[in-house]
Design brief:
single chain; 4-stranded antiparallel beta sheet; 131 residues; alpha+beta; 2 helices; 37% strand; elongated
């Protein structure tokens, strides 16, 4: 008895922003690669088909695109990320660590300008309700 079939894996190559052909909004599009492979006993052996699509995150339409366009969009995104990381004068990305550079405000999630606790709070003597 042979158990055979196929399995499709979807890989997100890039997230790019351009004008959607259906809704007309400048929205992010997920550029995806769907690879369907023949399986024998649930082991993927060789690809049967490869499809490239771009899906609008605003309206949800998914359009097939040529391989060349998908690879071009992926390269543009990678190039844009590299330029953003290498650009001088920008504060470092939170994943890179480090303190903010001079002249840039701290991230909004970091507390700024909160008053320091008074002497009562330091000694643990808070006024109790109902006394």
């Amino acid at each position: 008895m042979l158990i055979w079939g196929w399995r499709t894996r979807i890989y997100v190559l890039a997230m790019t922003t351009f004008l959607c052909g259906r809704c007309g909004n400048p929205a992010s599009h997920a550029v995806r690669k769907a690879v369907t492979k023949f399986t024998l006993f649930f082991i993927p052996l060789f690809p049967i088909s490869v499809k490239y699509t771009a899906q609008c995150t605003f309206c949800g339409i998914e359009n097939r695109i040529p391989k060349e366009d998908a690879l071009r969009l992926q390269a543009q995104e990678e190039q844009g990320q590299a330029q953003q990381q290498a650009a001088p004068g920008y504060p470092p990305h939170p994943s890179q660590g480090g303190a903010p550079q001079a002249g840039f405000p701290q991230h909004p999630s970091q507390p700024q300008g909160f008053p320091q606790p008074g002497p009562q709070a330091q000694q643990g003597q808070f006024p109790q309700q109902g006394q």
